[in-house]
Write a structure and sequence with these properties.
Elements lengths: L1 E7 L7 H17 L3 E7 L1 H4 L6 H17 L7 E5 L5 H10 L4 H5 L2 H9 L6 H15 L3 E5 L5 H18 L7 E3 L34 H9 L17 H14 L3 H8 L4 H29 L1 H27 L8
Parallel strand pairs: 1-2, 1-4, 2-3, 4-5
Helix pairs in contact: 3-12, 4-7, 4-13, 7-8, 9-12, 10-12
The structure holds adenosine-5'-triphosphate and L-tryptophanamide (LTN).
Adenosine-5'-triphosphate binds next to helix 1.
């Protein structure tokens, strides 16, 4: 069975950036790749590369799991699980660090950005994080990995590591391919549209959370930073705010940016923002309703247990084979 693998860090409430750049894409791909099995996980080992409050982390793990289901992921070709519950992820991360060069990790822009943001105490795990991520993918011989634009560089390193191991030991890992959505791969902050919309931005007005009230959503969109030339066109360099709103609308409605520009080119910003706000409200309404249903039903734990059992069987076998392949332990009889 071919695999599609991806994860999301439980580092706070999910926003429409993560939703449009990744979860909505998973849902679409489940339809398009019916013959593939989806292994989707909550990347809690990744989350602790930066110090976290333990109660908040626990809460966020459960919330992300419930949101995955609320956003419409179907459970028939899916294993949903928590990364740390499968020991092979930590083991694979160490083994892959033995194949990763310092220079490769030093080039990672996410590390540079995140390390810069922290005043002190940058952990070594933040530095080796791409090896953990490569392990998440290679453990399951993923054919495809759906991610947002910011993960492209980590995916390239994963491919390089797979090829490096394969060249040295003979074909062992599937070399994964990224699946990056055409629109929505980089939703920008509503207050600083040249920056990615992020869970870790100090300014809460920069994002819309999936569980935000309708009126908060409207408020955030209506006060989104734009420009003063009054024209609706797609030009991310010169008009990042309007271009971002066009991307959000396009990712939600599945209408191309070109079509949207044609429809709204003679509209004023206020009216256009109202259209975007209503589209977001409408998109998130069923997700919020389903979220509360999912939480109440208690089905999350059953699904996570099933997901864990399936993923663990695959991961255990692969790690045992890899240990053996590289000469660790004793020769198996
Ligand atoms: P943060 O928002 O704190 O920067 P992150 O991007 O480090 O979070 P996740 O939330 O784990 O980490 O990202 C999950 C997935 O969502 C990844 O595939 C990522 O590329 C995608 N994603 C995150 N933010 C955005 C965004 N603003 N636009 C599009 N895709 C995004
Ligand atoms: N690093 C990713 C989350 C992540 C992931 C993965 C995505 C961890 N492991 C494996 C795809 C495949 C992030 O920060 N967004």
């Amino acid at each position: 069975m071919k695999h599609i693998v991806s994860g999301i860090q439980p580092t706070g409430s999910l926003n429409i950036g993560t939703y449009l750049g990744s979860i909505k894409n998973f849902v679409r791909l489940q339809e398009a790749y019916k013959d593939h099995h989806f292994l989707i996980f909550i990347a809690d080992l990744h989350a602790i590369t930066i110090p976290r409050d333990r109660a908040e982390l626990r809460k966020s793990i459960k919330e992300v799991a419930a949101l995955y289901l609320a956003c419409g992921l179907k459970t028939d070709n899916l294993s949903l699980f928590i990364q740390s519950e499968i020991e092979a992820h930590s083991q694979m991360s160490y083994l892959l660090q033995c194949f990763t060069y310092m220079g490769e990790l030093e080039r990672m822009t996410q590390f540079k950005e995140k390390a810069q943001r922290q005043e002190k105490g940058v952990t070594s795990s933040l530095f080796t994080y791409p090896a953990l991520m490569a392990g998440d993918i290679l453990l399951y011989d993923a054919e495809y990995v759906p991610v947002g634009d910011d993960q492209k560089q980590h995916l390239e390193l994963t491919r390089d590591l797979a090829i490096r191991v394969n060249n040295r030991y003979g074909d062992f890992f599937t070399v994964p391919k990224p699946l990056i959505p055409k629109v929505g791969a980089r939703i920008m902050s509503l207050t600083e549209p040249t920056k990615k919309m992020s869970k870790s931005d100090d300014n809460i007005k920069s994002r819309i959370l999936l569980l935000d009230d309708d009126n908060i959503i409207r408020k955030r969109i209506m006060s989104a930073v734009t420009d003063t030339d009054g024209q609706i066109r797609f030009d991310p360099n010169n008009k990042p705010g309007i271009s971002n709103l066009l991307s959000i609308l396009s990712a939600i409605t599945n209408e191309s940016i070109e079509t949207l520009v044609n429809t709204y080119k003679d509209t004023d910003y206020k009216t256009f923002k109202e259209v975007v706000a209503e589209a977001v409200v409408k998109e998130l309404k069923p997700i919020k309703e389903k979220y509360h249903e999912v939480i109440k039903s208690g089905e999350v734990d059953t699904i996570l247990d099933q997901g864990k059992a399936h993923a663990e069987r695959i991961a255990r076998k692969k790690i045992a084979k890899f240990n053996h392949k590289i000469g660790l332990g004793r020769k198996q009889k």
